[in-house]
Amino acid sequence: MSLLSNINVLVPKGKNGIEDVVYSTESALEPFSDIVIEFVDAFSKLLLTDAKFKSYPEVVALGFWMRTGSINKVKSDFFKRNVNRLKVSRGLVFHIAPSNVDTIFIYSLIVSILLGNRNIVRVSGKVSVQKDLIVDSLNTLLAYEKFSVVKSSVVLIGYEHNSDINKYFAVHCDVRIIWGGDATISTICEAAVSPRSLDIKFANKYSIAVLSSIALEQLSDNKLKVLAKNFVNDSYSFGQKACSSPRTIYWLGDNVSQEKRFWQAVSKCLESFEHELSEADFINKYSYICAHAIEYGSKKRKTGDGNLTSCIMTTVEHSIDIATHCGSGLFIESRVNSLAEITPKISRHIQTLSYFGIDFSDFSTWLAKGVNGIDRVVPIGKALDFEIIWDGLDLTESLTREITIN
C-alpha cells in the first residue's frame, strides 16, 4: 500500500490528484491571473448568496473578503510595490490548517492561488459543518470546465498525524505554511523542508483590547449596542480561541460606571448570539477565576449573564496569563492611565490590539518608542478580519519570488 493511499482527498471530488499537483510540469500561472480572479469572485458570490451560509458569519466574512473589489485592491497594491520588478510564483505550497478557526485554510489557499502557486492543503480533522459546506462549494465550482486550470493546482486533503506523510510533502514543497500552536509547529518541523524551501510559521498568539472609558461616556445607547455586538463577534465567534480574539481588556481611564454599562450591553447582545460554549467551558472558567483570585487577589466582576461573560479585575502586573487562559468568554481586566503602562506586558505572543475611542496618533507615538510585540491595531469589530499582512508578514511577498534581469 502506497503512502498516499492513507490520505483522504476532499477536493477535487472523485479524484486523487495529489501526485498531479506535486509533480506538475505545467507552466505556472502569473500572479493575479484573470481566470483565478474570476474563480475567486465566483466563490465569493456562492458564499454570499447561498442560504445555507447565512447562519455562519465567519463564512459570510470570507465571502466579502473574496469580492472582486477587495482582491483587485490587493492586486493593485502588489504591483505598485513591485513596479519594474519581475515577481513569479514559488511553486508548490503545502498548507497545514489550524483546528481553532474553520475558515483559515481557505484564506491561506486563496492568497496562494492568486499568486500562481500549486497547493496541497491539509485541513483539520475536527468536525465542522462550515468546513464541510466550504469543501462542497469548492467541488461545485471546480467541476466547471472553465476553472480546470485552477482545479489542476488545488488539492485539499485530510489524514491522521503521520510523520512519513509530513516528510513526503516537506521534501517536495517550495513553501510550507503552518497554522497552529507551538507544539504543532514543532511536530510538523521534525520533517525538515529542503534547503531551498521556505517555512512560514503562524504560532501561538494572543490578543488584547483597549477601550477609553472617557470615549464610552460620550457614546449613545444605540451606538453602544453596535460596539457591544462588534466586541461579541470578535470574542465569541470561535469560542475566543482565535489568535486575534481579545482575552485581556485594558480600560484607559477610571470610570467604573461606564465599564459596567459596557458589560451590560455585551450581556444583552449575548442573549441572541449563538455561542458554542459547553458545560466544560463554564467549569474551566470558574476554576481559572478561583485560581487567579487565590494567586493574585483578583476579583470577579458581576455581569448580567453570569456565565457567558466572566471578567476578573486585576492589576496591570497580572493582566496577561497566556499559559493557562481558557478562553470561552473569559476576560482579564485592568485599568491604566496611559498606553505606556501596558508596554511591560507586551511580548511577541501578542498579535492584535483592538480598540475603541483612541486616536491613531496616540498609537503611533506609543508604538514608535518600541514595543516588543503587537502585529496589528484595529477597531473593535475588525479583530477577525483577515489581512494580507498577517503576524507582521506580507504573504504576497512570501509566496512569490523575484527574478532579477540586468
> Which architecture of the largest domain does the CATH hierarchy give at level 2?
3-Layer(aba) Sandwich
Task: List how many beta strands DSSP finds.
Answer: 17
CATH superfamily of the largest domain: Aldehyde Dehydrogenase, Chain A, domain 1
| Uncertain spans | none
End-to-end distance, in Å? 50 Å
Gyration radius (Cα, Å) is 22 Å
The global form is globular
What is the share of helical residues?
25-40%
> At the first level of CATH, what is the class of the largest domain?
Alpha Beta
Total number of helices: 15
Main β-sheet description: 7 strands, mixed
How many domains? The number is 2
Strand content: 15-25%
Overall mean pLDDT: 93
For the largest sheet, list the strands in their spatial order: 10-11-12-9-8-13-14
In CATH, the topology of the largest domain is named Aldehyde Dehydrogenase, Chain A, domain 1
Structural class: alpha/beta
